[in-house]
Amino acid sequence: MHASCRRRSIAGVSLSAVLAVLVAACGGQGEADRGSDDRVRVVASTNVWASVVAAVGGEHVEVTSIIDDPAADPHSYQAGAADAAEVASAELLVWNGGGYDDFFPQLAENADAPTVVAVEVAGETGKDVAAHEHAESVEHGRDHEHSHEHGNEHVWYDLPVVSAVAERVAGELSDLRPQQAGDFEKGAADFTERVDELVNEIDEVAERHAGAKVAATEPLAQYLLSAVEVTDLTPHEFSAAVENETDVPVAAQQRMLELVSGEVDAVVRNTQTTTPATEKVVEAAREAGTPVVDVTETLPEGRTDYISWMGAQVDALAKALDE
Questions:
Q1: What residues form the membrane-spanning segments (predicted)?
Q2: What average pLDDT is seen over the chain?
Q3: Least enclosed by CB within 10 Å: which of 11, 110, 248, 265?
C-alpha cells in the first residue's frame, strides 16, 4: 500500500511530542530485534533516496521510504503517527532537504540516529542550493548553470551529487556495522560506476544537442537539462507559479503556448505536478508536434532502481531531441 494511503495526519498532538514518546518506546526494542536481524534499519523521505541506500547497502539494510506513491507531493506531505514510528525505530535517516521534504526533519529532530541530507552534501560539493530561489535570467548551456540551479533543491537530478550521497551513506553504514564496511564501500563504488556510465551517456547527448531549446512545466529536471547543455526558454513567471501553486500570469501562459507551438525542440513535463495551465501547454505541444518528455519527482510504481529510472528519463530526453 502506498505511503499516502496508509498514513494519517497527527491531529491535536505535536509531531515532536509523538516522536519523543516513540523514541523512548523504541529505544530498547531495536536492540532486541537486532538479535535475529542485523540489517541496518534506514528510513528515507522518498523512494528516490531509499533506492540509493538500497544500492549501497544491499542485503545488509532494510530501507523504508515515507513517500513511495507517485501521486504524493513531498512539498505538501503531512506526516502521520506511523511515519513518526518509522523514524523513531531507524538507525539511519536520509532525506533531501532544501525545503523539499520539510515534513522529514520535523520527524528527525528528536530521533537518535545519524543523518544524511542530500542538499547539505550538495553544498559540500560546491553546489549552491538555497531553497526556493530560482533565478529569472535564461542563458545558454553551462554558462547559465548557476542562474538556473541557484535555489533548485531537486538535487537527485544532479548525478555527481547522487554519487556523493551514496558515498556518505556508505560511510554512515560502515560506522553502524563496521564488520560490513567493505561491502558498503563496494556497494557505493559499484553504484558510482553506474552513475558515471550514465553521466557519459548525458555527455553524448550534450555533444549532439548542446544549444537545443526546451520549455519545462516546472524546474524539476534543471540539473539534467544543464548537463545536456540545452537552453531552457521557460518564462520564470510560469514555472514559479506552477511550483508555488498560484495562478499563472496570462502573459506567461501565452508565451509558453507560443514556445511549445514551434519555438522549442521539446517540452519537459513534471507528471506529478499537473495543473490546467500545464495541461494546456502539453496539449498545444502535441498539436504542434513538439515532443513531450515526462519526468517524475519519485520513482514510478514498479521501479526500485535509481539508475534504470534516471536512465529511462535521459533516454526519453535524447529521443525527443533527436526527432
A1: none
A2: 85
A3: 11
